[in-house]
């Protein structure tokens, strides 16, 4: 399995391909960026330079306060995970113009100078899922480079590198699984994660520390989607999202739902059963030993249990991909190249 991790671009070679390893940039002072979703306020620098007394009369040393301030900084710091591949499409059609549009808005209105880690589907990334389900993403065409003569992912890599975004691409793995793995590592380090993607698969990851920001094609802007939004939309826990989608399927990704074999089994029935039992496996286990619903639902859950478990294997995101998040990827992003790089990109497209 080949892993390709791409660092930051060389500043004086627009769209030149660099294979140099990542050089750890100098740490710069954090620019605190507020948003409607995560707001952060820097702690007073003087508090870390003096002794402080707690309510119990204990004196805290300077180094202890520095550690606490670092933990607070991380807790309030966002890390964006950019799911690149879906942004290269307009509907089901590959589009370099769509990529440029969404990246421009993302940098200027969403991520600003927060750290961004871009992830791209690897070669044969969906092979494992297609072996389980041949219809999985079977309709999806590969992006084409348009006027570029390079491989599809390479011109995307170059734009992102020039905008100081590290790119991760692992052959044999889909971007979704890599994002899920890296996201969990970032959260474990005390960061808050924001996944930038239109893919509803990521809803299964939503929590207090994980949000999604979604490109809305009809409004031509990005929109944050949080745990609060999920509860308002579905009135259940995000952990149930995967189970619900395993029952109902995912037409976009070519995953057929139970209604294809039992037409009477609809969304209301699925949601009711998932809310009651919590997970697909709990529901199937219960249905195997007792009645859990109306006759048509009972028969569907017992007769097509393997069908539903296969859907789970296809739709569940893996969090154990062999990739480690790097400290260099978590530094503040320098946006100074954005305007020049994106202007050059659009000029090349229209030239």
What is the topology?
Layout (H helix, E strand, L loop, with lengths): L2 E4 L45 E2 L5 E2 L1 H15 L1 E6 L5 E2 L2 E2 L1 H16 L4 E5 L6 H6 L19 H11 L4 E4 L4 H14 L3 E5 L13 E7 L4 E5 L1 H8 L6 H8 L18 H11 L2 H10 L5 H9 L1 H11 L22 H13 L1
Parallel strand pairs: 4-7, 4-9, 7-8, 9-10
Antiparallel strand pairs: 1-8, 2-3, 5-6, 10-11
Please sum up the structure shown:
The chain is α/β, with parallel strands linked by helices. It has helices spanning 62-76, 96-111, 127-132, 152-162, 175-188, 227-234, 241-248, 267-277, 280-289, 295-303, 305-315, 338-350, and strands at residues 3-6, 52-53, 59-60, 78-83, 89-90, 93-94, 116-120, 167-170, 192-196, 210-216, 221-225. Strand 10 and strand 11 (221-225) form a beta hairpin.
Task: Characterize the structure shown.
There is one protein chain. Helix content is 38%, strand content 13%. It is of the alpha/beta class and 351 residues long. Strands 1-8-7-4-9-10-11 form a 7-stranded mixed sheet, with helices on both faces. A two-stranded antiparallel sheet has the order 2-3. A hairpin with a 2-residue loop joins strand 5 and strand 6. Helix 2 runs antiparallel to helix 12, helix 7 packs antiparallel against helix 8 and helix 8 crosses helix 9. The longest helix is centred in the N-terminal third of the chain and has 16 residues. The chain starts with a strand and ends with a helix. About 17% of the residues have low confidence.
């Amino acid at each position: 399995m080949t892993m390709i991790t791409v660092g930051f671009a060389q500043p004086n070679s627009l769209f030149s391909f660099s294979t140099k390893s990542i050089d750890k940039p100098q740490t710069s002072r954090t620019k605190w960026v507020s948003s409607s979703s995560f707001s952060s306020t820097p702690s007073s620098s003087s508090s870390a330079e003096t002794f402080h007394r707690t309510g119990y009369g204990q004196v805290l040393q300077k180094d202890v306060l520095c550690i606490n301030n670092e933990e607070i900084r991380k807790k309030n710091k966002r890390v964006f995970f950019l799911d690149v591949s879906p942004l290269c499409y307009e509907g089901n059609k590959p589009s370099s113009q769509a990529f440029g549009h969404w990246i421009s808005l993302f940098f200027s209105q969403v991520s600003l100078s927060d750290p961004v880690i871009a992830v791209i589907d690897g070669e044969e990334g969906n092979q494992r899922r297609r072996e389980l389900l041949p219809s999985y993403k079977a309709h999806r065409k590969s992006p084409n480079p348009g006027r570029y003569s390079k491989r599809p992912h390479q011109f995307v890599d170059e734009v992102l590198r020039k905008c100081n975004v590290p790119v991760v691409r692992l052959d044999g793995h889909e971007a979704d699984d890599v994002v899920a793995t890296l996201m969990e590592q970032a959260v474990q380090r005390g960061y808050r994660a924001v996944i930038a993607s239109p893919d509803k698969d990521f809803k299964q990851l939503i929590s207090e520390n994980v949000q999604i920001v979604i490109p809305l094609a009809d409004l031509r802007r990005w929109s944050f989607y949080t745990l609060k939004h999920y509860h308002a939309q579905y009135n259940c826990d995000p952990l149930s999202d995967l189970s619900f989608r395993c029952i109902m399927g995912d037409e976009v990704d070519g995953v057929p739902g139970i209604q294809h074999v039992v037409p009477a089994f609809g969304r209301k029935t699925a949601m009711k059963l998932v809310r009651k039992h919590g997970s697909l496996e709990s529901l199937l286990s219960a249905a195997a030993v007792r009645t859990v619903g109306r006759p048509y639902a009972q028969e569907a859950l017992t007769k097509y249990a393997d069908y539903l478990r296969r859907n789970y294997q296809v739709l569940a995101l893996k969090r154990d991909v062999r990739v480690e998040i790097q400290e260099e990827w978590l530094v503040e992003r320098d946006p100074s190249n954005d305007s020049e790089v994106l202007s050059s990109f659009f000029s090349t497209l229209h030239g």
